[in-house]
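Researcher: Please translate sequence to C-alpha cells.
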Amino acid sequence: MKKLFALFGAVALSLPLLAQTHSETITVEVVDVPVYVYNANGALQNLTKNDFELYVNGKPQAIDYFDPIDFRAPAKSEAAAAPIVPRDIRDRRLFLLILDCAFTRPAALDRARKAAAVMIDASAPADYFSVGTFTSKNGVQLLVPFTNDHIVAKRAAMALQSSAIHDPLAIAISATERENTELMAIVNDDGDSRAGSDSISQDPILQKLVGAAAADNAAMPGMRLIQDQITDFSAVAKRLAPFEGYKHVVVMSEGFTPTAAYREPRLMQDFKSMANAFRGAGAVVDTIDLGSTLTSDGFRESLENDALHLMARETGGQFIEHENNLGKALNRVSTASAVGYRLGFNMPKNARKGDNSIDVKVRNVPSGTTLSFRRGFSTTVSKPSASDGLLLADVILNDVPQTGVAPRIRFTERPFVEVVVPAQQLLAANEGRAVNADVMFYVFDAKHVVVEFKEKKVVVPSDAKQDIAFRDALRLPPGSYTAKALLRAGDSLGFAKQDFAIPK
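Model: Translation complete:
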C-alpha cells in the first residue's frame, strides 16, 4: 500500500482526539430503546408490542414505534469474506471492546485479547467493531474505529497497538498485516486461569504494555487512576452519542475496588455521571470480570469487581463473572443482543432537561427471564465534532451524507486521480476569509478493503481565484474500485464518492 501525501496528526484516534470538547448540543426528538429478552434457553421471540410496558421517570409511556431486532446471520465463508455495509446504518451492531491494561494482570489480559479476536472472527459480517485499551499513562486509546473489516479489528485485538502504516483514521492496514492476520490461528487458553503466562514472557507487545503499566501504576495514586478511568470512559460515551446503530461497550477487566471511591462523594458522583453519559448515548456497557476464575485447586479467586457490576447494572448491560471460558462470556454478550425488540417513543412533554430514567416490563414470559435495555436517555446530546476520527471513519466507511462543501474526484487522464477543493465555495462559506482545510482520500477495492490512502493539508487564501486540485498516480492492478474523499474545513465536512475501474 502506498501512502501518497505526508501524514499529519490532526485526526488521530488516541488520546489527543479523545480529549475533544463538545460545547454544542442537539435536541433529541425520538428515543429508541432496544430490549433483549432471554433466558437459559436463549432469546424469547414472537413477543408483541402489547407484551411490553414502558416507563419514563417512573410514569407509563406510550410505545410509538415497535420493531423486532434480528442480527443473526449465516457464518462468514471465504466466498463471502468482504465486509457488508448495511443498507441503513441504524440497522447494525456496534461493539467497542475495551481491554483494561491498568487493572488487569498479564495472563488475564492475554486471554482477553485472544477471546476478543475469536469473537470478531465468529461475528456476523455486518457487525462493526472498535478496539481500545486503557492504560494509566495514555488513558483510553482507540486502536481502530468502528469497522466491519473484521481483519482490521482482529489485528488490533491481538496486537493491542495501531497498525504500522499509521493511517490517521486507522481503517487501513498493510498487506503484510492483513495476510498475517488472515493466517493467524488463535489458541485460546481458557482451560486454566493460569494459562498464557508462558506465552506472555515471549510476547514483546505484552511485555512492553504490561511493563509500562506496572511502572505507571506504581507512580500513580490509586484514586487518581480510578478518576482517570471514569473521566476517559465518560469521554468515550459522549463520542458514541451521534452514532446510528445498536451500541455495546464491552469492558474486559479485573476491575478496581470502589471502596476508596465510596469514601469520596465526588468520585461516586463522577461514576454516576459516567453511567448517565452512556445511557444518554444509547449505549449499554457489558462487563466481563477477568479476576474471578476457577483455579486448579477448585477455588475461585476474585479481585474487587463491584465497579464492573455497577457499570453494567447502571447502563442496562450484562455483568459476567466466574467464567473461565472468556470466549463463551463474549458469546453470551453477542447472542443476547442478536435478537430483541426496538421500543421507540417521541420525546414526552414531561421529560426532564438532561438525564431521564427508563424502565421496561414484559408480560407473558416464563419465570427466570432476563431483560436487558438502556436505563435512561438525555434530552440533548453533544453535537458531532468534525475533528473526531470515529466520526470521519464512519463517514468514509459507510458513505454517510454530509452538508459541508464537498470535494470533487475526477479521472481525466489515467492512471492519475485528481481531488479538487472548491476554493470559491469554501471562501463564500467562510465570509471571504482564508480557509485551513484537510483533504482525506481513500481507495477501496471490490471487497471494500482500503488499498490506498492519502492526505493533504490545504490553505485557501482569501484572494484565491480558482479551485485547488491535487494530482497523483494510482498504481493499482486492474479491477473495480471506489474512491472516497473528505473535505474538512473547521466545522464543515463534505464527502464525495466515485466508482472507477482500471482496465486490463
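Researcher: Any highlights?
Model: Residues 222-240 form the longest helix (19 residues).
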